[in-house]
């Protein structure tokens, strides 16, 4: 992969404290800002913000959390580790996920990619004045996922709200409480099954249960083809002009989540092809047609050790296993193990991000 900033974006997660400490950084942070992930974890993300924008970015951190916002895109400058590189104009996506703020950081430059990212975001914030040309919204576009109705806290000092304040005049606040239920997943974008690499909490699904498994294990079978098509679209968006993995805006959808999961590698058995043809003079009954279908079974269905009818029993067992294996541990899926969720999908250089929340409809 070309390591120039225009080709990469990294996934970042920060906490709810006023310092916005890094909780997670994907490896592409090195390509964009020159830092290894372990150099940033536990430190304040605000230390990378340009001094002229520090106060406004800190206030944005507060308001994004207190208003429980999702898919907010902000343009601001962040410091590169190499002092000769200075500050880089970045596009930062931010979504509140219950007790952390998750998103991505990418190089911001005018062009179709920036316009697409801005047009799919729920809200765009321009912190760096020179980034004004990057703001773009389709005319009269409705909000694809309205925010939760949570009243913001009022524990903000009276010095907030001024552009280019000094660090001393920046707002201060106690660690904010958890917001509405949301879970963030980071998926392997380079695999067909999109293995789950990271899960932010246990609110919708158990972290220990889902880590390392296919994302589609937790998508109901009836929605699997639809969700796969969404992810294919998100992957196609997340490609830069050179055909390399990059960031690619936001997609919104709704599907049924299986809390305990299932084995998505099990596919339904192929139906027996019909041998009835219109216009053919036949006196066979339905039972006779079923008998013919059984006689036409391929020979590998029969077991020499199982005696007559063993192949039929094997096929029945396979059908039952397919029908009943809605979770890896077996057993039929109960209503309390299924949840309709709203989802935000986004692509990044080294992963896909999926934000889930219980659907209100």
UniProtKB/TrEMBL annotation:
CDD domains in alphabetical order: PAS (cd00130)
InterPro entries named among the record's database cross-references: PAS, PAS-like_dom_sf, PAS_fold_3
Pfam families per record: PAS_3
Biased composition (Basic and acidic residues): 311-340
Record SMART domains: PAS (SM00091)
Bias kind Polar residues: ranges: 279-290
Region annotation (Disordered) ranges: 262-340
Stored Gene3D superfamilies: PAS domain
Coiled coil: none
Domain of life: Eukaryota
Protein name: PAS domain-containing protein
Organism field: Polyporus arcularius HHB13444
Lineage of the organism: Eukaryota, Fungi, Dikarya, Basidiomycota, Agaricomycotina
